[in-house]
Amino acid sequence: MSTWIYVGLALTGVYLAGLFVLSMYGGRLTDIGVSDYFVANGSLSSIVIFLTMIASAFSAYTFLGGGGIAYDLGIAGLVIIGAIVVTDFPIIVMLGEKIWKISKTGKDYVTPADLFADRYGGSTSVRVLVALIAVGFTMFYVTIQFTGMGLVLNVLTDGLISREAAAVIIGIAMAAYIAIGGMRGVAYTDALQAILLWGGMVAVTGYVLLTTPSDVYVNAAQQFDAVGQVTMDPLYLYTAAAGFGLAIPVFPHIWQRYYSSKRQSAVWAMGFGDSFSALVLLTIFPGLIAFAGLTAHGGLENPDTVILQYILEMPGPVLGILMAAAVAAAMSTADTMILMMGSIVSRDVYEELLSADISDQKLSRNSKIFSGLLALLALGFSLIDLGLLVEVAIDLAIPGYLLLLPPAIAAFWWPRANWQGTVAGLLVGLAVIWYYSLTGAPIPLDLWIGVPGLIASGVVLVAVSLVTAEPDEERVNEFVYELREYSASDLEMSQNVPSEPGEPSAPPSAKRVGESEDD
């Protein structure tokens, strides 16, 4: 076994130690308040948000899923990932600016359900249902990240460390720095991980281009039909790509970035970070590597390992550095998701259902406990063979997240939307997704599974809202009409500078999130 593998493990250990240092720095800046711990009190800069968006959006897909789906599906795999830019960038900006604005008007938002419950009459049904969707489908994603962590170290150490042992070791380290640093710690560590992601993928792609004869790509196009032509149903392909892009802006762990941003410009930074990374990190670079790998590493049992095969070929010192970079890729989303799940279960389920006035200290403690328990559950699921990472996410997690888009849009742009329509729409959408998933029934027109769920959810939301009581006028005015009057500069200034006579007044403080109408 190469000595460089041990060097790589040592560098990975140094990298993990660096994460602890950054997390401790973030922890020292964090007070005991719930908002500060979970969303950094809305104080993160645009550059930090930009970097953490890159890390949080793609994670294990960078070194595993992107190359795997290109290797397995050819150009169709690139379309599924690359085309999301068409839909996700405008939605991130338009919806994100609204969420950012309303969060700066004195709200105490920590989770996505906080906003939904506030807009839809403080409904407990809305809060708990949104929370269960967020946590339930996020479990798939966290499971994928644990699987990715184990697979990366198992392959890059030539089997020295088992997939299970690697996942446990990194999972424990990750849980520790999450507990220490909260959102600030996660954001700072994600920023470092984003830099490693880019550096690692640039290095691997450069190595492949320098060592691969040009005729290899020609041969690949001639020998493998999937490389040069779409071999799957076009309607499924394009609806999957569009659905993936529409779901990203309402990923619960992305949603918390809107709350965490200090300035509105950070929302644009999120859009650019997500879109540019999707085009380069998950499309162009993995495509070049995967198509070369079809000839150089043909017949891989697990296509997700094609990029790792090239890393193993690289010079020893580089192998060591890239081992740490690949581990960083898998950790960068899981940490955010675990923190998010803990906050949701503690605040939206435990506190809400008990109707308890829990102190900030106890809420933070409960969130850490729930985060740990959910992480252990995901770790257990990761021991199951899940196949291609991207396909698992597209089939299970993405359609579930997508159901949050109709009530999110309606919250700011349709005054008539109410809690009854939101609950009915989400329940019907879930029923449709699970029906097709569990029964294997053919989907009309061979559409991607998320499309019928999205359509059903939106139609039911509108229909039920129209035949039930009108929503509270004060809340509608606050979310739909008054929000348009606030400028970004006034909202940014109001966070730190008290209003003085003659200056624009700070937005009014809202009631505590959760004061509700009866369901």
UniProtKB/TrEMBL annotation:
GO terms for biological process: sodium ion transport. PROSITE patterns: NA_SOLUT_SYMP_3 (PS50283). Pfam families: SSF. Keywords: Cell membrane, Ion transport, Membrane, Sodium, Sodium transport, Symport, Transmembrane, Transmembrane helix, Transport. The keyword DNA damage does not apply. It is a multi-pass membrane protein. GO terms for molecular function: symporter activity. GO terms for cellular component: plasma membrane. Residues 491-519 are annotated as: Disordered. Belongs to the sodium:solute symporter (SSF) (TC 2.A.21) family. This is Sodium:solute symporter family protein.
